[in-house]
Design goal:
homotetramer, 4-stranded antiparallel β-sheet, ssDNA-bd_transcriptional_reg (chains A, B, C, D)
């Protein structure tokens, strides 16, 4: 708690650009509760928890890449099975520097939605709609709307998530003010993560002398075979 | 199919920036057919299929890096054997959300052509010509022309491929509208992939105490040896 | 010493943009003293010293990423234990090309502060305050202030650190003029380092057929599970 | 040779932006001769040759990163021994698509000089001077001058190297016109390579439970220890 307080304090002292308020112990709580909330199912080997979190007065925003999963087909080929995404998790504040993880809401940005975020300029805004039960009988019953709107003075953005649930008759809204510095971290980190959530970091060069490299000489995807048809 | 529908639907709902319409099952079909279409030749170990695909009304565009291959020479040196590229695959639509993989056409962007794509601004356009049978008796018989032209309102680009085959007396043309968000994904992913298709990700630092590091002290390419002549 | 002299010399010859004045032997001294100054505690296996250093007339600035540490929890999960940072080390000059490592002062930029640095334009300035003893009885006794201010002619920045210690009644101030080229190196290297100090380079894709990938099908963080609530 | 011809041909066809003229066989010759020209000394294990080459009418420019070497000190620590660089190699043309490797001249860009190149805008130019025998009795006898000047129409740059040798009474000058696309490849690839020539790609995170991670708790470079003095 000391650290967070210290950072919030230095935050007040900061000139123009607030400093990071992420806190080791908060991360601990966050990820520990995540472990619990899944009935132990999340205990995956080498699972790494390294969210980038922005803690503000009324809500916190935590961002973390979710990598794709692959499945095998043919003789040892891998195919993207479940696409990756950037997972945004919003938590409401329930006191000074306390956030209710049980009341969290998530929004998963696809690769192209990440492209929108990366290409958002100082004056731009963007908005996405997701419908969990689309095409089912419950279509339109639950609607999630993520919007990113610039501050009037260009000092950052408001990142808002609203979740309207017509079944439970509930409406939840989270708004987290994000500074230019924090948004730059998001853009830079998302640019880094994008090829990873696309699975491009798994592309490997065949080593000389291996079967793979021999076969690759007749690889139909090799450039020269562009000429085949 | 559900997922794609859902995304297309959310696509209609999207404000300003469409969301990703890539679909796991479509990827499946795409790569599975790819596996078939090569008579099994493509069954390379650890071959990864992770194309970034844009599905639109009249055609789909699928982009994937093709890494270089290396060959050995001297005592354990590696040299780029076949240069890498960014492979663009166009597929014509043959129904709602159905694309004919057999009628695909490919265009392989070289490193420098990728440089053109990356440096293409919101108002810029670029165009490339490839001739598969150049310098042969069939020179000019088959011509491929890829063009990237910006939308009038700056909301994205038209990516078009035309293939004129004077032998078969055929002309094929594919046009895929690409949003700013989708083009940002292409630029970001291509910037990530560029050093890989150039083979620069394979450059390795000699470890201390190894023969390599000892020899590297007299490596003719080391900076100080710039002074040799 | 020859090299440094040579570079300083070529520096004088340079037109518009000075060249790098980093020096192998200076690095040697710097890191060797670092090894000593910690009573051997810093002798960590595979510890790599590769600071980017800018040597100027009155002071030197050395920048190096400090990676996060992880701790285990649950069954094999990893959690960021100590967050990473970009460590700036200032050294006062005590003669021509001589710097006093014992009088060094450090300033650790958090991920968000790195975001500020990366988003600093040619005309922008930014400033950070740290208080080591915040919330303790000594709060406000020692104040560190890092400022980055652009040159009037846009040819670079002044990077200054002031340390006011009311207990020791001391005030130290370091100012290092940084050229646009040197600042570009800092921005580019910090953009590269940012995901690493965030721990995102440790995120791994579950391999097909492993327990991890099976469990990941029910991973609460997977995109589709965005829809769970 | 076919490929190169083909590319040169498509080059003539290109609209606005020329395509890559790099050629597998040319690379072969280039690297093979490199192997020879060093009396076999360059036969380092896992040495990879993957230059990015621009072949033009009067000269060719080949660019390749040279990674740093490390030496051990203390108990298993690594220190940058020889700094990395971007090595530019110029070759004069001695016929159509023929270049004289024996008459090559090299220029090694330091990290900061790479920073200059990366920050060079469409209208900017930059210039560097190196003196191999600086501070020796031969100081000023051999002077190397690399300049990058923009085309008047902003379509690219002229990259020129002049080498004046007052001892041999020789003056050599190479000028290679580089298109915007080719320069974008250089900037993108140099941005990728920069952290590698700085040795930052070798920084590693201590694994939990290892001696390293235990020691890192008292690592003098850890952020919190910024507060120590």
């Amino acid at each position: 708690m000391m650290k967070l307080s210290r950072f919030l304090n230095s935050n007040r002292n900061a000139v123009g650009k607030p400093t990071d308020v992420r806190d080791g112990s908060a991360l601990h709580a966050l990820t520990f509760q995540a472990g619990i909330s899944t009935g132990g199912k999340s205990s995956i080997q080498d699972r790494v928890f390294a969210p980038y979190s922005v803690f503000k007065g009324k809500a916190a925003l935590s961002v973390e890449p979710v990598l794709p999963t692959f499945s095998k087909f043919g003789s040892g080929n891998l195919r993207v099975d479940r696409r990756g995404s950037m997972m945004l998790t919003f938590l409401p504040a329930i006191g000074e520097r306390k956030y209710d993880y049980e009341k969290r809401q998530k929004f998963a940005l696809s690769a192209t939605e990440v492209g929108s975020l990366i290409s958002t300029g100082p004056k731009d805004s963007c908005e996405f709609f997701h419908d969990p039960s689309m095409l089912s009988s419950n279509a339109g019953q639950v609607r999630k709307n993520l919007s990113i709107k610039p501050h009037a003075d260009g000092s950052g953005y408001f990142v808002s998530l609203s979740v309207v649930n017509n079944i439970l008759k509930t409406t939840e809204r989270f708004t987290v003010p994000v500074t230019t510095a924090e948004f730059t971290v998001l853009k830079t980190a998302c640019s880094f993560a994008l090829p990873h959530i696309m699975g491009w970091d798994r592309l490997t060069t065949p080593l000389p002398g291996t079967l793979a490299s021999k076969l690759s000489k007749v690889d139909p995807q090799m450039p020269d075979l562009e000429w085949d048809k």
